[in-house]
Structures are given as structure tokens and as C-alpha cells.
Amino acid sequence: MTDVQRSLVLVKPDGVRRGLSGEILRRIEAKGYTLVAVELRDATPEILAAHYAEHEGKPFYAPLVEFMLSGPVLAVVVEGHRCIEGFRSLAGATDPTVAAPGTIRGDLGRDWGLAVQQNLVHGSDSPESAEREIGIWFADLGA
Ligand code: DAT
Ligand code: MG
């Protein structure tokens, strides 16, 4: 037996702009996970500084923050047994060029030759990250 988990998923500005929010939610629901919260939001520099704190100082950090501010994101809380690992598997590898076909990034993403990969989705990478990230995006939910 495993505990029910929650994961913080973001459809990034490229996904919203390209009209792929519904397709991405469809894949999450088709997998069997539950949508606990879904909200179209404008990120802020403060939210992103907290959300991406682990990447501060990396060469792609400033382009990443700029990209995440380039349009609305769809912030989603997903629930289900092992959904943190499960959504990472649905999302595929960070680099969309090598992400496996069948995954969100592999099927719907590509390299655009930019300083930061625009790879459609974010998903929490551990229970600790999920709790922290849900607290950042949905303070009223707790984690
Ligand atoms: P992930 O989103 O798969 O958890 P991450 O947390 O390592 O990946 O990085 C956050 C985002 O930053 C990632 O989705 C895309 C971008 N990124 C990561 N590594 C990169 C790199 N080497 N070059 C360009 N963009 C990168
Ligand atoms: Mg990450």
C-alpha cells in the first residue's frame, strides 16, 4: 500500500499559448488521476523565485523565469497513489527532443533553439517538492 499523493503540475506558457491545456489535462485524467485544483494564473517574480529556487545561478535560470512570465500558466493539483512519479512519467524527459514518444513532452514538444527549453509542463519531483510547491501556488490548500 502507498499513501495518496498530491503533485503540483503547471501547464507552462507555451502549453497554454499553443492551446494544449485541455490535451494535457485529458492525459492526466485518462491516466486515472484526480484534479483537485485547476486555475489559470499569471506567475509573478516572487512565486517563481520560490518555485525555482533550486535552479538559481544556473545559466538557464533567467531565461526560465522570463519564459514563465511570458503568459498565463495553468496551475493544477493532481491526486492519486504515486501520482508524483506517475506524472513525471507522463511528462517525459526534460529535453523534448529526446523525450520518449507517448509522453507529453515527446509527443507535443520540440526544441525551439532558445536559451531555455520550452517543454510544456512542470511536475513536482518528490513528496517534499510537492508539498513545498503546492504551498507556493495554492496556499489555501495546504499539502
Ligand atoms: P524538469 O522540469 O524536468 O523537472 P528541471 O527541474 O531540471 O527539469 O529544470 C526546470 C526547467 O528548466 C526545465 O523544465 C526546462 C529548463 N531546463 C532545465 N535544464 C535545462 C538546460 N540544460 N537547458 C535549457 N533549459 C533547461
Ligand atoms: Mg524540476
TrEMBL record:
KW Signal (keyword) present: no
Catalytic activity: a 2'-deoxyribonucleoside 5'-diphosphate + ATP = a 2'-deoxyribonucleoside 5'-triphosphate + ADP; a ribonucleoside 5'-diphosphate + ATP = a ribonucleoside 5'-triphosphate + ADP
GO cellular component: cytoplasm
Entry's transmembrane regions: none
UniProt cross-references to CDD domains, sorted A to Z: NDPk_I (cd04413)
Sorted UniProt keywords: ATP-binding, Cytoplasm, Kinase, Magnesium, Metal-binding, Nucleotide metabolism, Nucleotide-binding, Phosphoprotein, Transferase
Assembly and interaction partners: Homotetramer.
Family statement: Belongs to the NDK family.
Function: Major role in the synthesis of nucleoside triphosphates other than ATP. The ATP gamma phosphate is transferred to the NDP beta phosphate via a ping-pong mechanism, using a phosphorylated active-site intermediate.
Protein name: Nucleoside diphosphate kinase
